[in-house]
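Suppose a classmate hands you a notebook page containing two proteins, each written out with its sequence and a corresponding row of structure tokens. How would you begin to make sense of it? This section walks through that situation. The first entry is reproduced here exactly as it would appear on such a page.
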Amino acid sequence: MAENLPKVNSLIEAAGQNFDPVNKIHEHVCGFHFYSHDMSRQVESHHYCSHLKDEIRQCVIYDSNRPDARLIGVEYIISARLFQSLPEEEKIYWHSHVYEVKSGMLICPFIPVVPQAAVDKAEKVVMEELIDTYGKTWHFWQVDRGDPLPYGNNLLFGTSFDDFVSVVLIDIHSFLGPPQLMMAFLDDFQLSQKILDDRDRRFNVSTAHYRKNRENIHPKCNRDLKADHWASRDDGMAYQTEMKLVEQKSLPTKEQRSVQK
């Protein structure tokens, strides 16, 4: 299949397909997420975002910024005003961005030739917009545990791609793992320093520098405690998705449609 990609791509280009939704992406933000039920599983997440409206960003999330990056999730980002309009039971799926911005861990990667002064000015504008927003994030591909494809069955933890064919023959239901609800950090020492340092080294950035540069960025609204639900619970529990069998609402059969006529 891979050997046919150049031919397929050239045919698509010749046909002139429309890529307007993808072409609207204009912002790259790199941060870290953790699984709502397990803070020890921390994932570097590269958000490529477009504005649906002034108060709504929609972001596709990759595990890196390389050409072979894997699409691992999506995040919807809304303003504090829109967040306040949500039903109370919906707010628990969202997280705040105040700490991510103030801590410096959330960055806007730029190409190396851009002067640091220009980077500081540009990313500060983005962070001033993000600090009062809320995000709802789903990860489909659990790359942190080595999954070769986006499945979710814990029994396949650590399965290599070479083993994939035999695994499918054993358990085709391995692909039924649902998307996972992700959350953001709220305090120092929650994110692994090793993971943070590795990101900073690869992008030649300093989280400490960005923290200093954002000292005068302050939220205009108090953080809604309905967001970041895990932080306000005292029972050690968190919301997460799981699959269950439900009744299917089927369409009328051909015979039933004939009777209805």
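The notebook's second entry, a different protein, reads as follows.
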Amino acid sequence: MRHITRGLVTAGAVLSSLLAIPGTAQAAAPVVKEATSDSADWSVIDVRLNHGSAVGEDVKKITAKLRPLGSAETDPPVATITDFTQTYWASSWEGVWSSPPVHLDTLGEYTIDVEATTSGGESTVQQNAGVLRYEKQPVIADFSVTPTEPTIDDKLVTATGDLLLRDPGTRSTTPMPGASVDIDLGGSVEETVTTDDQGHFSLAREVSQGGWARAEYRSDLGYATVPWVDIKPKAAPTRLILDKKNFHVVANAEMKVTGRLEYRSGTEWKPLAGIPLELDYKDSHITDATEATTDAAGRFAFVRRVYGDTKFEVAFPPYPYNPWIQRTATADVTAEVTSTSRFTEFTAAQNEHAQLDITGSVDLSGNYHSGRIKVGIQYSADGRTGWKTKKTVTTGFGSQFIVEGLKGNPDGYWRLRYAGDTKRDIKGTTSKAMRKVKALTRIKGAGASPEPVRVGRTLTVKGVLQEAKPASTTGWTSWKAYGGKRVQILFRPRGEKTWYLMDTVKTKANGSFAKGIKAPMDGTWVPVHLEPDSKHFAGAGAEDYVDAR
């Protein structure tokens, strides 16, 4: 027993306590937390202790004394039990100690008084620590579940057992007929059955999943249960069979992946219906799954757009979980893409001299290509046949190109064409044709008179300004007068190359004009229509050399 010495507390003692190793348990008397009948066998005493011992100490002895419930603490016990074994470890200093079945002469309830002693000599006596229920106890015997590994072909599980009433003294049992027993088969089946005349019960049901199977009985007589039995479905091997695994499609086109899902049943393979599958990128951190569910024949179909060369994988999605099959089967799909091109820009502006300024841009859909490409600028008189390349431009995908001052035609159709690249699997493209045309102008009967002429004398430059408008497709209307427009009179002195503007005259309604100008010297005269509107080309008359004396 503990021996306590009373005396003066010294400073050394205080210092020693401050320097004690942290976490070291100090010797203490055990604490009886509870004493009760064991739930599985009411004739067994369970004592829960927190012994709080120093390191290395343990519970050395437990003594339980039984007296009828309601008796005085001083009444003598009807039984004393000292044989206890630890049956549960809550921690290194707490646990449960259990006795063998107790044999008493009379059924009933008994108060439990407990004395517990540690190996360090610390002892505790706990009166009224709990109650022993020494009565006939309902128990479930011979509980079994078959099979514990159901299969996808046979999901039927049968649970059986016997509900009995056990005498704690004789350990004999009698059947409990007409009693209700609750049966749980892995959480997918929960039903109540009734025992027969022999106390036997049985339940056979198909389960939808695995889990713990158990049987329970509850009534005024008490509660009975069984150790849980684990139902583990045996997952069947699976396989994915594709109708086609290699595809070659145009960029942005749809690819249809079809096949069937099967599971192995014995030595044969059978279709799997109603199973979710997904088609997603293979070995990629990017997820963009296309989903499908197998039909009654195990068939599935995925329809997916493909934008570039890609490796896909048909597999099971993470959810929902299916315990009946192995969800490890996969099937690879390879998609190769023919890239497509298209012109996203094409403009053509034509000036008064039929010269063209052209801009354009071609984009690529599909596999990335950073190289240079060649684009042809083509012309056709009727927009249907006879296309000829007038100029070839080197550019890149997604880059704008500009061509200025390209020699054109008064009327015709223009387009852009990229031939493609068979080596890089790029499909070519052609822009829409664009007609560029304006009305023609000319000066008919142009001339300067008189000739010769004296220097400083007046000469007259005259002519008729006419226009010819384009037809709706190709060709021109007849020449007609073009009145109310300005005509410029140009002069080039003999021996020079430069033209000089001498005067401007406005045409009459019939297109005619005449302008008198003093002759400066020998040279060439010509009337021109240099500043047409946006719907006409510039026009000119014949040059006329005049000798000035």
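A careful reader of the second entry would note: The longest strand covers residues 331-350.
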